[in-house]
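Hi Y.,

Following your request, here is the sequence exactly as I used it, all 298 residues.
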Amino acid sequence: MKVTCHVIKDMLPLYSENMLSEDSCKMVEEHIEQCQNCKNDLNDMRTFNEVPVNRDVSPLLKIKSTLRKKKIQTVILSVLFSMIFFIVAFAFLTEPEYIPYNERSVTINEIGNGSVLAQFDDSINGYDIDKYLTDDGYVYHVTTWTNIWNRNIKKSHINNTLLNPNGENVTSVYYYNAGVSEDVLIFGQEIEPDGGVITLPRLNLSYYVIIAAGLAIVSGLVMLINYRNKKVFTFSLKLFFLPVAYLIAHLLIKGFTTTSYAATRDFYVILLIAMPLYSAFLMMWHLTSNYKNNKTLL
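Below is the corresponding structure, written out as tokens. Let me know if you'd prefer a different format.
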């Protein structure tokens, strides 16, 4: 039986891979000895043209570097938000809870040579003392407080304190109840014959909120006006994030209240939150910009 070239060509791939039976191999070999075309086809199959290997690894290294940067940025962003969470939680746990006046909370005694000692009850975890000079001497305003942290987590007690370590003349000592009621005279003479002395909360935080809000408005307007100028827009956007971070931090700590009896403490806590929050805003903006640019290129 004569074998055609069509049949042999169908068998050549199997023959080149040594997958035919002995009889089939013999049939193929007999045919290619007489048929040059089939022999050429077999030689082409057996000839391996190695594809040149592209040894340029810079694209892979670039992708690897991009992925590493994104991973690092994600970790940093997570750390920043974790910092904000823990600062807010710690601020809540350590927020002063002002104690209304009672005879046990604080007692004032003159111990000799004009020295005046303030003694605090064991249930007190902290106190604030303000003083100012009058014609007759110094007037002191004292209050005491406790908080969740000191009551339940890290229990601590405060020491007694000398009000006039430098020998100042103490005219009066008032206990103020943090806006609950009028100040109570607990030592010395009444500075107001008709009474009615009251210690008001500090207004410092109000000024900072007004400044932050004004800066946010100005920088926001600059952004809107110069939205086509990339350089000016970017600068004003970064500036805009700063007061916004402060305002959000203020809301987290004080809510919509801008007065405080512990203004210094609250201001520093707000700054501690505003700094990582500002950094988080910048990083999120940077990630969003990169994503949009990559999407545009695609």
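The helical segments are 5-16, 22-34, 36-46, 58-93, 148-153, 204-225, 230-254, 263-297.

Thanks again,
Q.
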